[in-house]
């Protein structure tokens, strides 16, 4: 059964630039189903990050409606929008922003502190998330004692530990070598299969694109092409 988790209707986003306005997104219409593994590609400035920020409820459209898990992101209160992000949406960025004074374990646990779990529950969840990315042995290390690829895997664990319905990854491999890019894409694909998390990427990286099951090409803020690479799994 198909199950729409993200519904974008006539999304336009304008930014004030000096005295004028710049249209970063122009009338975007897209739907994503639960469990999709999809990427936005397109030239720099085509609107990928702007669109991911709207889906992630970090920003609102100027016109149109973005329904994320049935909620209109523009109409959410500050609190509701924070709840959506704290419980349902995980983020992975190009720079993984681990907190340097905390251990790997604490960096992942951090994502759970805004939720109501006991310390024991958090321990179970953090160790499971570190296991997903093969890093249980590094739990007590500080970020400056691990490699870049390991750092991005910690960022995946931090984003996935709360088992979000949606995982947004904005150019997650931009700072990784080829080997680590493949490692993290395989990990994310496995989590997509096991947890049915919906993954949305933005990328310039051919290595990332080869894992995508759907690629949405953006150009000048418009959808230029929307291709399904692998038939939708029976759900
Ligand atoms: N806060 C802002 N104020 C003004 N213009 C902005 C703002 N954010 C983005 N833009 C503009 O909107 C356009 C789309 O930006 P966006 O960051 O979404 O592109 P992108 O596709 O993610 O590019 P890249 O591949 O370089 O990350 C760009 O021209 C950018 O300069
Ligand atoms: Mg971007």
Report strand order across the widest sheet: 6-7-8-3-9-10
What's the CATH architecture name of the domain at 4-101 and 164-228?
3-Layer(aba) Sandwich
**CATH homologous superfamily (4th level) name of the domain at 4-101 and 164-228:** P-loop containing nucleotide triphosphate hydrolases
Radius of gyration: 18 Å
How many strand segments? 10
Which strand-content bin applies to the residues?
25-35%
Q: What's the SSE pattern? A: EEEHEEHEHHHEHEHEE
Low-confidence stretches: none
Note the gap between the termini.
5 Å
**Looking at CATH, which topology of the domain at 4-101 and 164-228 would you report?**
Rossmann fold
Query: What's the level 1 CATH class of the domain at 4-101 and 164-228?
Result: Alpha Beta
Structural class, by secondary structure, is alpha/beta
Give the fraction of residues assigned to helices. 25-40%
The major β-sheet equals: 6 strands, mixed
Number of helices, counting only DSSP H or I runs of 4 residues or more? 7
Word description of this protein:
It is a single chain. The strands form two sheets. This protein has a six-stranded mixed sheet with strand order 6-7-8-3-9-10, sandwiched between helices. Strands 2-1-4-5 form a four-stranded antiparallel sheet, covered by helices on one side. Helix 3 packs parallel to helix 5 and helix 5 (148-160) packs parallel to helix 6 (178-195). It has helices at 48-55, 78-88, 104-110, 119-132, 148-160, 178-195, 206-209; strands at 4-17, 20-33, 37-41, 63-68, 71-72, 89-92, 166-170, 198-202, 214-219, 222-228. 32% of the residues lie in helices and 29% in strands. It is α/β, with parallel strands linked by helices and 235 residues long. It has a domain at 4-101 and 164-228: P-loop containing nucleotide triphosphate hydrolases (Rossmann fold, 3-Layer(aba) Sandwich).
